């Protein structure tokens, strides 16, 4: 069907000319939202006409930024597309710079959701940011703190990802060259509490025991009031597991410490 083929070729050439009209120099010519969306939808056709993916995606990003603020989801999507193209081309350094532009926006939006009690929406964005942090090789201590923040929100709101987030935070804290005993303890106790809620009791008890040891190390071997919540958790776990003698022992220790002057 020659006519059909000729029409397709003519349409492709017109689309290519339209695109070329917006690529003069480095500045983005004013473009309507509808035209930009249309051109983005013709990406495969433009590639077939000989345009390079990196150049295409750089242009689309520049045009998007001229139309919308940097936090607009369409700008973010365009930036991620550009970063992916850069990576495919082997330009990891520039790709990482583009990815890094997205992170503070996602995190800021996630915190805004948390502030407005939209915990699931916030957690979804925070998790996306965490995946990008992992990809970019963010410093381990920073990454651990971000996983711990998500875990604590998950625990408070009884969201299903809390256990996984605590486990990842603990893995990262335990892998630090210099130990962060305070946050490792916080993570151990949080994980033990979440596992208790999830009825993974034997493992919960093991992490509660690790938290007990960690707290003693922090207080120089002395039993202080900071040990009380850990002792209470151990008492509850022994009770559920049917070891009533051990449960009573830990409960009594917790009471003695609580009221010690």
Can you summarize this structure?
By secondary structure, the chain is mainly alpha-helical.
What is the topological layout?
Layout: H1 2-20, H2 33-41, H3 43-48, H4 53-67, H5 73-89, H6 92-115, H7 119-136, H8 140-156, H9 162-174, H10 181-197, H11 201-218, H12 228-240, H13 244-258
Helix pairs in contact: 2-4, 4-5, 5-6, 6-7, 7-8, 8-9, 8-10, 9-10, 10-11, 11-12, 12-13
Would you mind describing this structure in some detail?
The chain is mainly α and 261 residues long. Helix content is 77%, strand content 0%. It has 13 helices and no strands. It has helices at residues 2-20, 33-41, 43-48, 53-67, 73-89, 92-115, 119-136, 140-156, 162-174, 181-197, 201-218, 228-240, 244-258. The relative contact order is 0.05. The mean pLDDT is 89.
General form: elongated
Beta strand count = 0
Distance between the termini: 95 Å
The residue ranges in which pLDDT falls below 50 over 5 or more consecutive positions are: none
The chain-level mean pLDDT equals 89
The residue fraction in helices comes out at over 70%
Q: What is the H/E string?
A: HHHHHHHHHHHHH
The number of helices is 13
Main sheet record = none
Question: Structural class of the secondary structure composition?
Answer: mainly alpha
Note the beta-strand portion.
under 5%
C-alpha-based Rg, rounded: 27 Å
């Amino acid at each position: 069907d020659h006519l059909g083929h000729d029409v397709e070729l003519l349409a492709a050439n017109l689309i290519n000319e339209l695109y070329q009209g917006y690529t003069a120099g480095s500045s983005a010519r004013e473009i309507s939202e509808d035209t930009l969306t249309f051109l983005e939808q013709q990406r495969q056709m433009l590639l077939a006409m000989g345009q390079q993916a990196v150049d295409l995606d750089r242009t689309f990003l520049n045009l998007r930024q001229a139309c919308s603020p940097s936090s607009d989801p369409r700008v973010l999507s365009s930036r991620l597309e550009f970063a992916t193209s850069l990576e495919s081309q082997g330009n990891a350094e520039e790709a990482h710079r583009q990815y890094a532009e997205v992170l503070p926006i996602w995190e800021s939006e996630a915190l805004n959701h948390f502030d407005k009690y939209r915990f699931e929406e916030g957690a979804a964005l925070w998790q996306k940011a965490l995946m990008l942090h992992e990809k970019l090789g963010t410093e381990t201590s920073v990454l651990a703190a971000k996983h711990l923040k998500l875990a604590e929100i998950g625990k408070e709101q009884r969201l299903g990802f809390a256990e996984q987030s605590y486990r990842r935070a603990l893995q990262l804290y335990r892998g630090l060259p210099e130990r962060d005993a305070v946050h490792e303890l916080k993570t151990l106790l949080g994980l033990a509490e979440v596992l208790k809620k999830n009825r993974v009791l034997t493992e919960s008890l093991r992490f509660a025991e690790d938290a007990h040891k960690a707290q003693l190390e922090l207080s120089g071997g002395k039993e202080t009031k900071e040990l009380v919540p850990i002792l209470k958790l151990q008492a509850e776990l022994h009770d559920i597991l049917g070891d009533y003698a051990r449960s009573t022992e830990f409960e009594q220790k917790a009471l003695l410490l609580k009221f010690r002057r």
